[in-house]
Amino acid sequence: MRPLTDEETKILFEKLSKYIGENIKLLVDRPDGTYCFRLQNDRVYYMSEKILKLAANIARAKLVSAGTCFGKFTKTMKFRLHITALDFLAPYAKFKVWVKPGAEQSFLYGNHVLKSGLGRITENTMQYQGVVVYSMADVPLGFGVAAKSTQVCRRVDPMAIVVFHQTDVGEFIRNEDTLT
Prior knowledge:
- This protein is of the alpha+beta class.
- It contains seven helices and twelve strands.
- Strands 1, 2, 3, 4, 5 and 6 form a six-stranded antiparallel β-sheet that branches. It has a six-stranded mixed β-sheet with strand order 8-12-11-10-7-9.
- A hairpin with a 2-residue loop joins strand 2 and strand 3.
- The radius of gyration is 17 Å and the shape is elongated.
């Protein structure tokens, strides 16, 4: 595991800021210790410094993972967020979308959120803003990108897409044979 380069850190923090804004500092400086991001096989892991010191005793070639996988860098150096980051990002999300119970299953099958399935949306959400998708019972379901702003969502057709699907907790079941 190696520290992220300046360019990798910039790309990672830009992606995270789309979902949690300036709350990124709350991920690193937590009350229970200092946490950091490390890179292993193009995947970014989030871990405490205690776990990092323990992982340093294992050879790099033998180490599969340590900490929580936040996502991976593609070959074109874009960062793709994984669903495993949801539990860490959901409490700090600035923009949220709640889906109705009937639309939950559709979202968990990998479909976009339609206006007819939209329960609530955070005020002042801009178009193409990263959002965390919740059930009406405040259970985080996944990540998405707002297809329309809050103001446009109010007067749009019920069959219009309001949130583009990025990833969801159903991904584990759909892709369990290819997830590594």
